[in-house]
Amino acid sequence: MRTLGEVGAHMAYNAVLVGMLIMYGLFGAFVFRKFEATERVSVSDGQPGISRDELLVDLWSGKDLDFDAWSVQAKNKLDLYEEGFNPESSISAEWSLDESWLFACTIFTTIGYGNITPMSTSGRIFCILYGFVGIPLFNVVAVSLGSLITGVIQFFHSTYEKRKRKIVAETHKKDDFDSEPLASEVNQEGNLTFKSVLSMTVAYLAAGTLLFSLWEDWSLFEAFYYCFVTLTTIGLGDYVPQNMHHTVFFGGYIIVGLVLVTMLFSTMEEEISQWFDKIKKAAGITKHPQEDKKDL
């Protein structure tokens, strides 16, 4: 991407892809919540059908308090008891829309925290189908976003280089310019360098560390540990955000962060391959004759 028009077109295309991914995440959140809500209600319907009043009379048997005083005390305790087993309360705690959205994100990004899982057969079947479609969709979005980030940096680098050359030409210092190589964020093939991607990833992890430590009341190390485990898709699930007021941010942070980490690992693989090639060359290890024929 060398022109502003190309950058704008690529950004519009990626906006459509990200919008599709968000809609897919919301679709999954609604379906998972529907299936798991139905499962929890059906489990609750299987409990003994004794009425509240009958239970109070049974609890009253053999008590020394007068009935009015005891019934108030017993009802308060029963309210606390029923709140803990109320199916609606359980749904809102584990399968709220925010929690379901975050769960859907962990499916198509393959993070898989494991803090909540589908319990119904319908939910599990849907989880298989949802991941089967969602994982390739996310990979397409991730590759496209990575290309956009590279393109934007290439555009600004190219613009900077052209302006600097123009200034040098106007000031008649071409010889000095040619003797001073430009520091570049891209290599000769036009790809981002390892150092540039590493710098962006570290900055992104640091920003997430600060925000999560503030919102989740974690230490800086705990927040950094969560960000790293999440963005590398290790997804142990020992630390999971509890403040669901920032769920949209969580989803966005994960998606963009996975793109950066994927780019980082890709450039690391290139660096490691080049390093091993140098070792092979120094050791006098040559390619197999068949490999040489393929290169020809």
TrEMBL record:
The keyword Transport applies. This is Potassium channel domain-containing protein. The chain crosses the membrane at residues 12-32, 100-116, 128-156, 197-215, 221-240, 247-268. GO terms for molecular function: outward rectifier potassium channel activity; potassium ion leak channel activity. One of its GO terms (cellular component) is plasma membrane. It comes from Pocillopora damicornis. Gene3D superfamilies: 1.10.287.70. Its main location: membrane.
